[in-house]
Write a structure and sequence with these properties.
The protein is of the alpha/beta class. It is built from 17 helices and 15 strands. The strands form 3 sheets. An 8-stranded mixed beta sheet has the order 8-9-7-12-6-13-14-15, with helices on both faces. The protein has a 5-stranded mixed beta sheet with strand order 3-2-1-5-4. Strands 10-11 form a two-stranded antiparallel ribbon. Helix 1 runs antiparallel to helix 4, helix 6 crosses helix 17 and helix 13 runs parallel beside helix 15. The longest helix is centred in the last third of the chain and has 20 residues. It is globular. The structure holds adenosine-5'-triphosphate (ATP) and magnesium ion.
Length: about 425
């Protein structure tokens, strides 16, 4: 009996055993459907050519027997298409290792976009706060960062995209300052071309005393309304008879572009959802993030999820498109003598995660960082956030931010803030 993870290795083995015949095909698509069953899609010409058709059927037969139940009977397992492009139906394919003419296409029930990595957006830097596990201090770090940047005179746009468990908004704004609408409302209104009507009612400034401003776009408005019903619709693609379907992540990018145009911020901080989740995929890969802060705390549970993501990026050949934008952040670092040990262990684990993706480069070939474990500027070297009694629970974040003082923020979040300041002063793509 075969299970899902054996599909690609077995396919590779069977095709390798028949590589001379496979090499004669113009292209071959291995279609892994929604139920995880495999079909071949081959050029239409092969159907008319008896000899070639028999050969392909023979290879599929061998594969189907090995993959069962992840395959079809041979009479239902092979499809013929005029061009490879048509066979994909807009999905993205990736090459089967070792074969120049064999492509895998994976049909998923959700619109997962982890492997399509947008170019860094031009203009103001978008900084995403992401973590594989929840409860690691991500939103608190974002609030403190927004405060510190605004304190230094910057206009900071904060997006609460943790739509399924919103909270940052109530943390940075007192109840009476919450705007009428939030991101969820816009995503629903946009489906009926009503998004722009609410745009100026979906952000307000924070009442914290800073030289700059914090503009906060919450997940929902002061009255969440029928939040569950709205949330169930935010993922909808927008269908236009002329333009086709616009995926929801493209709609979200459109929203962010409009907000940036209205607010003209110096930085955008985005609180992503935790985990390998669709909203997180949009934040990490689709919004053209300049920097993606990946939060980690010591312990195996952090690395299992990050490893799954990294191996996906590697398999799809896109890891180098995103690697340089990632930056590890260590949450909840002990505020005592265990601190150095904690950070060293975290860096070693993070290095293990990144090491496979570091190709060999000559010393000096990259100016900012090299690929050594002890490199302080490499993405795997964690920026520490100290555990601090004052930041733990009890007070609401809003009350905390009102009382906070510069020295305290510096002592807990100093390295992260310094990193953000450096990122903001780097040259942006035109
Ligand atoms: N530097 C810190 N020192 C001590 N406690 C902290 C610190 N930062 C955050 N906390 C506490 O840790 C808890 C989780 O923080 P926070 O809500 O910021 O995490 P999160 O990663 O955004 O979680 P979620 O996944 O639920 O969104 C809160 O109780 C918060 O008060
Ligand atoms: Mg949070």
């Amino acid at each position: 009996m075969t299970t899902f993870d054996q599909i690609l290795p077995i396919t590779h083995e069977v095709l390798t055993a028949h590589c001379d015949k496979i090499a004669q095909l113009e292209w071959l698509v291995i279609n892994r459907d929604l139920n995880g069953r495999v079909r071949f899609i081959v050029p239409e010409r092969c159907e008319a050519d008896d000899a070639q058709r028999t050969e392909i059927e023979g290879i599929y037969q061998v594969l189907a027997e090995r993959l069962s139940p992840h395959a079809y009977p041979v009479n239902a397992g092979i499809l013929y298409e005029t061009t490879m492009e048509e066979s994909l139906h807009g999905a993205k394919a990736f090459q089967l290792e070792g074969f120049k003419n064999v492509w895998i296409v994976d049909r998923l029930a959700n619109e997962s976009t982890w492997e399509t990595i947008a170019e860094v957006a031009s203009g103001v830097p978008r900084i995403v706060f992401f973590s594989i596990k929840g409860g690691v201090g991500r939103s608190t770090a974002l609030a403190a960062s927004a405060w510190a940047l605004a304190r230094a005179g910057k206009r900071v746009l904060v997006m609460d995209l943790d739509l399924e468990s919103p909270g940052l908004s109530s943390a940075l704004l007192p109840i009476d300052r919450q705007p009428k609408y939030g991101i969820t409302d816009w995503l629903v209104e946009d489906l009926v071309d009503n998004g722009n009507v609410i745009l100026s009612d979906m952000y307000t400034t924070s009442n914290l005393t800073t030289a700059g401003e914090i503009y906060l776009v919450p997940a929902h408005g002061n009255d969440p309304g029928e939040y569950v019903s709205k949330l169930g619709r935010v993922w909808m693609p927008k269908v236009d008879t002329k333009m086709g379907a616009e995926p929801w992540s493209a709609r979200l990018t459109r929203l962010l572009n409009s907000l940036e145009e209205h607010i003209r911020p110096d930085a955008v901080l985005i609180d992503s959802r935790a985990g390998i989740d669709e909203v997180a995929a949009a934040c990490v890969t689709d919004l053209g993030a300049h920097t993606i802060l990946i939060f980690a705390i010591q312990g195996q549970q952090t690395w299992t999820g990050y490893r799954a993501l990294f191996s996906h990026w590697q398999q799809r050949g896109v890891i180098t498109n995103i690697r340089g934008r990632l930056q590890l952040v260590a949450g909840l670092v002990p505020d005592d003598e265990r601190r150095l040990e904690y950070l060293a262990a975290l860096r070693a684990d993070a290095y293990d995660l990144f090491a496979d993706t570091y190709d060999y480069v000559e010393p000096g070939a990259i100016s900012e960082w090299n690929f050594e474990e002890v490199d302080d500027n490499a993405p795997h070297t964690p920026l520490p956030i100290r555990w601090n009694r004052g930041w733990y629970g009890l007070l609401s974040l809003q009350q905390r931010m009102v009382q906070v003082d510069e020295n305290e923020v510096q002592s807990v979040y100093g390295e992260l803030i310094e990193f953000l300041n450096r990122s903001l002063t780097q040259e942006q793509p035109a």
